[in-house]
Amino acid sequence: MCKCIAPHEGTELEDVEYGIKPLAIIYHDKNPKMYRAACSSSRIYHRKLVRAGAIAIATNEDNICAYRRLVRNRNYYTRAQYQRCMGKLLGYANHDVEEFIISDIGKTCTCVECGGTLQ
Question: DSSP assignment, residue 47?
Fold first, then answer.
């Protein structure tokens, strides 16, 4: 995967801890070590279990609320509109989001953050 498609891949926890990223969703199945660290980090003051095995960590509680609201209302958006909103919440640059939208991953990924359905 090219760096521009997932520029924060693997650094989400540290990026939120140091205020580089406003929000991250960390999946236990995808990265168990980071998931455990996110659950116990003393630098993360805002965290919520958003689904079984998925935790939201954020620089402030409003970011988690906005994430939950977006996911809850995702059926009111086109896939591209939803991805733009999600990308902004997750702290990605506009050009990175636009590149993601036209990528194969952006078009086909079934995870909730990319526009898939809740499992």
Answer: E
Q: For the segment 4-50, what is each residue's pLDDT rounded down to a tens digit?
A: 445 456 789 999 999 999 999 999 999 999 999 999 988 888 999 99
The pTM for the full model equals 0.87
Side-chain half-sphere CA neighbours of 83 within 13 A: 24
Size of the chain, expressed as the number of residues it contains: 119
Three-state DSSP at 67 gives helix
DSSP conformational letter for 31: -
Cα distances from 114 to residues 17, 41, 78, 109, in angstroms, run 23, 26, 11, 6
Token pair belonging to 54: 């998925």
